Amino acid sequence: MGVIERRERERKAVRKKILDAARELFVAEGYDAVTMRRIAETIEYSPTAIYFHFKDKETLIRELCREDSVSLAKAFHVIAKEPDPLERLKKIATAYVDFGIKHPNSYRLMFMTQSKLNQDDLVHMGHGKLEEDGYAFLVATMSEAISKKLLREDLQDPDLVAQAFWAAGHGVVALHLAKHGDPWVDWRPLQDTATLITEAMINGLQRKDFQP
Amino acid sequence: MGVIERRERERKAVRKKILDAARELFVAEGYDAVTMRRIAETIEYSPTAIYFHFKDKETLIRELCREDSVSLAKAFHVIAKEPDPLERLKKIATAYVDFGIKHPNSYRLMFMTQSKLNQDDLVHMGHGKLEEDGYAFLVATMSEAISKKLLREDLQDPDLVAQAFWAAGHGVVALHLAKHGDPWVDWRPLQDTATLITEAMINGLQRKDFQP
DNA sequence: CTCATAAACTTAACACCGTTAAATAACTTT
DNA sequence: AAAGTTATTTAACGGTGTTAAGTTTATGAG
């Protein structure tokens, strides 16, 4: 039946219409500031129409977030080809920071808000969320760096080192997204800070003659 | 008149009563999850009574936050006596992380949410908020480290280095507060990560023979 | 062709939130 | 005792996400 396909296509079109309108508003004003009513208004639907296509506001936002995070996944996919683990680390950090700047709302949602760990999530686990893949990629890179003896001899725990490295990258982005407006700090360009912290970390982690 | 003093004392007592109840609820459930109505309920007042003592919910929360942040200020005050700048940096990082763990809600409010930069804040500026003092302390320490030639020769901008170092510390805390519940990361003890990132940063920043 | 059925939507409404306006009780001052 | 200030309550407003119930519209069956 061609009619059932047409319906599905129309439903998808409306879905996209909602997502596009929501995206534009969210990007401009942030997730919390935009109401369901305003999204409905811009597409000239009633507020409740959205709930036919999306379970609730969070689901809608997660969908946008998912779309955004594809760019990070793609970047990581390219970076995976880099043979040198330390060089790969630098590129990972760069891509990660870029993602945070390009998609601040999604970044905030993914990395700056505590995800409610309800039972549903625990059930649906193992599906390979993008954050999970990204972290696994970082750990794998760190593992390779360790096995190739590129890091200090006392650093044998890939998870520990990966978490420290992640924290460094996250710190730059998170601080920027949250506090860059504050005038009591003479902020340096984000790229400069990101480059410095990445270099300093790799430098500090790979050094051989470490003194406590 | 002794009566006016008594009134003031009673008013302060009610104020404290509200703050104590609010603190307990907030600590247990987070700032957003606790409503004004519930705070009022626990002290057996009507919800609107709170508004006689505090302008609004945010003011109340800021007051709690201010109280919390005193502990960080005190810690920094003690640390200021440490003569070695690099050692001071380590202690600053430790105190900062400790603060984040001890007062997660206040930390989130102070460092993980964008402060609305309205005109009022710009007017009331220069009052020396605690965050401001803390950052100034960090920059001063970094400045001293630079002038004592403890850092790499190419690092001459105290603000840049301070921001990178701050980002490192912030990254550890922020990641912990936001994502520690996520089960797809095999989290290492926060203290281990904090120690590693601090050492790695100082190590990476102070090294002389830096290769790009 | 008519009628039932399902999908896509709208209208009305609920429960909750922070907050304000108006009424009220309690206590001082005159 | 009257007037007035202070602290509190009751009632209500405007806003939010969301659900329930009704309404249109197009399709499929007899």
Concise summary:
The structure is a homodimer of 212-residue chains. The first copy, chain A, is 71% helix and 0% strand.
Question: Could you characterize what this model shows?
Answer:
The structure is a homodimer of 212-residue chains. With 212 residues, chain A is an all-alpha fold. Chain A folds into 2 domains: 54 residues, Orthogonal Bundle (Arc Repressor Mutant, subunit A); 143 residues, Tetracycline Repressor, domain 2 (Orthogonal Bundle), CATH 1.10.357.10. Chain A is 71% helix and 0% strand. Chain A has 10 helices and no strands. The radius of gyration of chain A is 21 Å and the shape is elongated. Chains A and B meet through helix 8, helix 9 and helix 10 of A and helix 8, helix 9 and helix 10 of B. Chain A binds a DNA duplex (30 and 30 nucleotides) through helix 1 and helix 3. Chains A, B: It comes from Candidatus Methylumidiphilus alinenensis. Chains A, B: It holds the Pfam family TetR_C_33. Chains A, B: Keywords: DNA-binding, Transcription, Transcription regulation.
